[in-house]
Amino acid sequence: MSDDVPPSAVSDGADPIGARLRQPARHLHLAELHQAWYRHRLRVVVPWPAGFVPDVGLPGRLRGAMGQRLLESASDEAREGRPCPWRPASALDPLFVARRIGASLEAPKPLLPSVTAAGRELVFTCDLFGFATAWSDVVAEAMVAALRAGLLDGEGRRWAFTPAARLLDELQGFDLPPAGAVAVVFQFATPLCLRRRQGEAGAGAPLAGPLLASIANRVSGMARWHDSGIEADWRSLAARWHGLAEDPGGLRAVTWGRVSHRQGGRAVPMAGVFGTFLASGVEADLALLVALGATVGAGSHTALGLGRYTPAFVVPEPG
Fold first, then answer.
1. Which CATH fold topology does 183-314 show?
2. Who contacts 264 (Cβ-Cβ below 8 Å, separation ≥6)?
3. What are the residue ranges spanned by the domains of the chain?
4. How many CB atoms lie within 10 A of CB 61?
């Protein structure tokens, strides 16, 4: 499965999910999203196989393997990348069918995979957002089936996993930033990939502006899965995030590769940055945006598990 399916172009009547995303029931300010934000965290715990080495591409391969499982129970339309006519729609539709919600904004896929180590176990995790949680049971079954069938490692070897536990956590809201924060350290758990406009690329190019812009797009799009549009002065916010001071000294470049099944198994080179990044001059609304972004990731290929970060906010000491 892949994110490069052409966005659907069908009437809202034939695409209720698309209509719901394009016409949110309410519009909220950033501070009000805390009460509306919810997600399910699906976790499958497996014994760590001897000799298995997780790599940066593993979450994306988990998502792809889950997609292959969801294909088996999907409508022909969803299998072809079009809105599913079934009611309720097959789970492949909300998680893999591409949709526009604006002239230049595509709805983000509401599934974020990750893999973490816990002692002698691995924890495979998928977060589902907003009304996409209606498909949690089906997605959890696809997740278990994909792991039992096996995932490839970075060397192309297949490893089958034996699930020891399957868990579902219902998460409401997000971790609010502290009052008075003036800076934030982004601690990237997975590489950040940014699509930059012409003239922005290259070593030494400002990163804070493109990073915050990508977070704004992610948060705006994911809000639609919560039946919400965002009320904000984006022009003013953009002027401020492009004016942030920054220290990229904690970042390092990383490269790897992935396989595109839609392109006949072609190897696709990947590149990003990993580590810590300091942005200074953050104000209350920008801090909220960063805190929201920590739940959805930043940059490109977040549906493959990239761009996950934890923010550490800096608050001046009294006096």
1. Alpha-Beta Plaits (3.30.70)
2. none
3. 12-172, 183-314
4. 21
